[in-house]
Amino acid sequence: MSSLKGKTAVITGASRGIGKAVARTLAGEGMDLVLAARGKEALEATAKEIAKEHGVRVTGVAADVSKLEDLKNLAGTAIRELKRVDALINNAGVSSQHPFHQQPLEDIEKLMYTNFFGYVMLTRLLINHFIENKGGAVINMVSGSTVVDPPPKNFIVYTSLKWAVRKWGKGLFYEMRDHGIKVTSLLPGVTDTELTGKLKDISQERSRLMSPQAICDAVLFALKVPANVCPMEISVINQQTPWTKPVIPLKQNHPER
Fold it and tell me: Does the active-site annotation cover 174?
């Protein structure tokens, strides 16, 4: 897939942050897109904005990836609108930072259904389409926190689920490679997005945070390598690694609340 012009992609969590940056980058390469996010208004605005900027087809589908019916609708709409889906970017995610004994039960449930269930189930809903077409790419946004052992304090549920996605993705690659399907886990460090911008005192030096463009460049690399090459894992980590000296305070007012 060295040239992406005329190819297609489905991107979740696409109305802001890394997902929106990836959508804009792929549209700039000439790809038609189906974008998914929970907020319908922001999603529709993003779809119109990117379509106008780059002259490609962009369809927005309001979807909560923690809900199976939403995922079924998303997969069905993507196949109907795009005819052929060439790439799936599993990006939607939520965060919750608490010591485990204080972590709200509803937060654990939300993490499990959004950060693991959503990735696995949407891929399952599209994988046979890829098999029929003898090719496709699945890129999973994992987390740079999975390169740290033990997991960062207050991130153990989040990081453990990201580890599960990483292991599942590796197994999926070995099952799917004979079908021409590539599977890549992308491990980003702390990135300067709307979500991190809402976190209090995330860093005294915001220059330590990566730009979303660094993640977009990694996505392009994964999609543009020759057909007989698959980057199974790409770590894009802050030069001054925040996880070794956390830039996120242990006590935090959560933007999701």
Answer: no
